[in-house]
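Q: Hi! First time asking for a complex rather than a single chain. Here are the components, and I think there are two in total. Is that enough to go on?
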Amino acid sequence: MKYLILVWAGLWRKKTRTVLTMLSVVVAFLLFGLLQGINQGMNHVFQSLNVDRLYVQSRISMSDGLPISYLERIKSVPGVRAVTHWSYFGGFYQDAQNSLPVFAIDASTQFAVYPKIKIPDDQITEMQRTRTGAVVSAGIAAQYGWKIGDRIPLQTSIWTKKDGSDTYAVDVVGIMDVSAYNAGSFPAFYINYDYLDQARAFGNGSVLYYIVSIEDPRRGPEMAAAIDSLFANSGDETTTQTEQVFAQSQIKQVGDINLIANSIVGAALFTLLFLTGNTMMQSVRERIPELAVLKTLGFSDRKVVTLILLEAVFVCVVAGATGLGLARMALGSMGSLFGALSPSALVLAAGLGIAVLLAVLSGLPPAWRSTRINIVDALAVR
Amino acid sequence: MSPAIRLNGIVKTYIRGRQKMEVLHGLSLEIGQGEFVSIMGPSGSGKTSLLNLIAGLDSPTSGEIVVAGERIGKLSSARRSAWRARNIGFVFQFYNLLPVLTASRNVEVPLLLTRLTAAQRRERVAAALQLVGLADRSEHKPGELSGGQQQRVAIARALVADPAIFVCDEPTGDLDRESAEGILQLLQMLNRDQGKTIIMVTHDPLAANHATRQIYLDKGLLVVTAARAA
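A: Yes, that's all I need. Here is the structure of the assembled complex.
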């Protein structure tokens, strides 16, 4: 602690340079905290996903779809509680920019597989009874001012009708709350599959994927294999995954977020290593006579090395901690948008560990340089 | 009484690139405890080299140096650093204070190497600054002090850890006559009242006159050593 005044003096000898270096470190660790926080948040979302639901999709590509005839065969697998299916509609309202998360579903099974969707039973019944029925989330209904009884001309960018039209008129028969299923990515606008399938000009008799509710989550992998074996060597082989794995593979279609985050952070920290290393080296170079004076007064090489490393640690750790703190605050304020996004204690500890490592790596070359100072020569220069 | 400093057959050779340059040629010298010795001589005569060897900042190429009872030529770098901290007070021509620290913090630097508590360090610093007449400038940074005042701070830094030997390299070389006289009187006082052994390199005969013994070097050899009449 008593050497703190020397560390402090060394740091603030060139205030502007120290402040700018620290700001660079703050920004790099802010980035680190944000990206790792988002990573953590996504992992948290994945972990919160249910493992008692399996997703069955085409082995070739999800967009290829599967025959509707698979429904009964999947239902027959022992341990299956319920099966439903989704087909993407590609819908929009009035303008293509007003895209809507519309899926064609089977109303008789959808709410059994997703029991946390809040919707009155009579509205479910009405949906089953009305071929052109639609159930929308409360958020979407509020956004467009829709209410039960409204007829909506829903347009599609995919499913042209047999009559050449792209418009499907649907009647709002229910308003639901899907917030229990990670609102934002969960489908929030349902129409009846039968209505779509009978009206569309192509793709009839197919669904995008099946969602299977199973009785024992521990048997998920075994049941996935059993389902896939049903359709092995057929024209439409399947790939069955748990909801967790399925969601992760969906995200990976955009890119490996983890890899992207780590690459960005790695590049930033690598650049930072040179930046802080250069700053420290420059700082030591300018202070050679002062360091020679310290050595003259009796400071050993080891003590001078310690002083220089402490300076580097101060710059990296204080600025790194500030960056991580800012990331935590920023993620906290974004929490309402994306859910549980926050750098965990492990990420914060890893961040601080990286800051110390950065300090040591950037401080070592100038520290080593200080041990090469010849007191007599350095004092003669002055 | 054993001498404070004993040099026996000291040879110092510098190697610059392919050139070897011998600056001290088998020099032998004894300086008693409590002596105030000035070392004079033309530029390149080896004055500063001799001072650096006595202070343990450099090692002789051959010969033996015993300072404060220690054969310092044989000490490792780390042990020599610790030895310097205990035994030697340094005063340089250009003060060599740390520019971002206040006078009191500059004076405190050698005490950071001791086991003294912060309160004890503060007490010792205040006493040292009082002794050099700068108690009221303790919170000033070097840039806010005159040359003479900066040299007084440097002397306070040299004496604060209570070393037995002071080595002064042209301590008045950068000062006007009046300030120089003040510094020399301060050194005399330290020698006379506190019994410090002082070795001072100077070009200035008037400064040298403040010493109790004058040594003249020329081309790396001791040519004259004379005690000043009391």
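A: Residues 38 and 214 of chain B are 5 Å apart (CA to CA). Let me know if you'd like any chain examined more closely.
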